[in-house]
Amino acid sequence: MSEALARHSRPTGTVRVTVPAKINLHLGVGDLRADGFHDLTTVYQAISLYDTVTVSTSDRSGLRITVTGEGADQVPTDERNLALKAAKLLGIYGHISPAAVIHLDKRIPVAGGLAGGSADAAATLVACAQLWNLRLSDIELEKLAAGLGSDVPFCLRGGIALGTGRGEELNHDLKAAATYHWVVATSQAHISTPECYREVDRLRANDIGRYSYHVQPLLKALEAGLPAEEIAPLLVNDMEAAAVSLRPELSSLMHAGLDAGALAAHVSGSGPTVLFLARDEAHARSLAKSPKLRASAKALHVAHGPVAGPAEQLTGSR
Ligand code: C5P
Predict the structure, then answer these.
(1) 118 labeled part of a ligand binding site
(2) 22 is known as an active-site residue
(3) How far apart are CA 281 and CA 181, in angstroms?
(4) What is the pTM of this model?
(5) Tally of helices (H runs) and strands (E runs) in the chain
(6) pLDDT digits over 232-270, tens only?
(7) Is 105 one of the annotated active-site residues of the chain?
(8) Which residue in 51, 105, 120, 151 is the catalytic one?
(9) What's the ipTM?
(10) 22 pocket-lining for ligand 1 (C-beta < 6 Å)
(11) 265 annotated binding-site participant
């Protein structure tokens, strides 16, 4: 271990952070950039589906990760895990030689286009910074988050934000005057994010697909707190055609929700989760009971947004 890594004495204790999923009310995708990413214009909203990340100091040096909850068996516990990457990155940045166990309790559907992995990474940054007593500025944390993934900076903050660049450049000055209610329908299908972006490019090469740059009408509607009925036609996702092209069965799921009376069916990010907008909470609960929708989805969750971002709770000494 280098002198720099040994600089801080080893802290002890446990920090628990709850972190919400994200959805994109508007997801405008530009052309493929030279760096392999696409320019985005997106409106993020954090919704009330939460993972809990608990980081505890350990007698053993190094970092380990354990996972429980919905879809836990699909979450890697090796170097591919974004929360583990986040803790390693923070350890290097903070000159800490970590000895900790990261525990993820999953309620955000895994690989669903809801940024569950990014949310866990954001929560891990917050938890480890607290546990290791690193006094980082918001800007430092956001830069570390952006290095981990395009959605991670938003997951650090939650609420509602406009994202540009590859999604990591955030404007938090949006006013959201109302809460909206959703049914979140997961699907048996699997779509990887890069696969969906490649399909967007392939369809566009064949003149299929749109470019949705105009986000102002949605921003104004959110600011005015317009009812869900008026938000529904403003929901846009340039990846939706690609997701449905890759997994045509999503179209039946979307129709099942619309037939049950949802105001809109909206693919979440790169899918395969589908979001159904409801008039209010009671409507969301009744949609989630619809037999046709229940038969078409893997699982249904009722959620609302926007909600606040990661909330930390220190349990034990540090
Ligand atoms: O940023 P993140 O690691 O989540 O991105 C995963 C993959 O999704 C990237 O490697 C890229 O293929 C694709 N992507 C993209 N444009 C973005 C964000 C992600 O093409 N704005």
Answers:
(1) yes
(2) yes
(3) 6
(4) 0.94
(5) 11, 12
(6) 999 999 999 999 999 999 999 999 999 999 999 999 999
(7) no
(8) 151
(9) 0.98
(10) no
(11) no
